[in-house]
């Protein structure tokens, strides 16, 4: 069955108790127990029918063995890192999500779990970083905000040869466009706050694992650490997932049009989008993902121009986050990467003129007209369709 069909018909869409066409909110903390005959559920930290429907759904969509829902993307990331112990070593994408970098360097390092950050688009850099204590390779592709593409098949093979786990943060594309477990990865993580929730109204995280052994380990950690997703937020994700492909297709179409338009704009120095043949990761991306997603970045040369655009745009909200029904414009140097020292930012290509755009479901002509008036002071534009 095609992905959009499986979003709606995956065996978890109807309440097994009542037949309800929407999984009910089992808003309960505990369950009455028949002392001689323990039921499936006993306490909602350990398991809840609404959360379980979501966990089973994401496991199916990512082609994994079991899914787990957490209170945020960072709760999901951190719980996965609890698989490791003092003395273990991890290899991590250099331009990993800022929160992931922070929890590794501020918390897990203190607990004796060390990380080496490398450019995972360069396989030899990964090979050079492998030590006897290395336990996993942690990758984000495409990365944020420069959309760098790492080779998931080659990295998974390399990891397997060294008995390492491959962990992939798949937030940027969602299972709609990229399924890392089918490319050899062991664990997939999502900030479901982004495309999976899709409406800028939930903070949530998801994990899907490849096999039973990992399912048992992550399941125990989820219950022991306890950073579970609440019932209502689980329900909102189940609802958001139903339209995932419709939203991804529409916002990706918008992103493609905007990227092409920006690439031709004289005030735009560079556009980063895997859908552009000029992007260095374009052909590799096309081999491991079925779409380019809604997120692109572009460089307008300097801080003044970037701030002018942020002040003048009328349609996108100016905010952190991505993957929502409404377009979101972010300014990495003052938002996601503000805590990175300017020298290091510059070395990694995150310049003062870099803006990140997450396309929403608006009409692309309206979005382009808005960007046009925001980039060019002199032009006044009337919106199409109004
Ligand atoms: C937002 C994000 C996270 C963190 O998720 P939260 O839901 O904000 O905790 C992790 N990875 C990526 C790629 C993200 O964009």
From TrEMBL:
Enzyme Commission no: 4.4.1.13
Pfam assignment, any one: Cys_Met_Meta_PP
Post-translational modification N6-(pyridoxal phosphate)lysine, affected residues: 194
Family indicated by similarity: Belongs to the trans-sulfuration enzymes family.
EC category name: lyase
Biological source species: Thermoactinomyces mirandus
Molecular function as annotated in GO: cysteine-S-conjugate beta-lyase activity; pyridoxal phosphate binding; transaminase activity
Sorted UniProt keywords: Amino-acid biosynthesis, Aminotransferase, Lyase, Methionine biosynthesis, Pyridoxal phosphate, Transferase
CDD domains the UniProt entry points to: CGS_like (cd00614)
Name this polypeptide is given: cysteine-S-conjugate beta-lyase
Highest taxon of source: Bacteria
PANTHER family, sorted: CYSTATHIONINE BETA-LYASE, TRANS-SULFURATION ENZYME FAMILY MEMBER
GO process terms (BP): methionine biosynthetic process; transsulfuration
GO cellular component: cytoplasm
Reported cofactor(s): pyridoxal 5'-phosphate
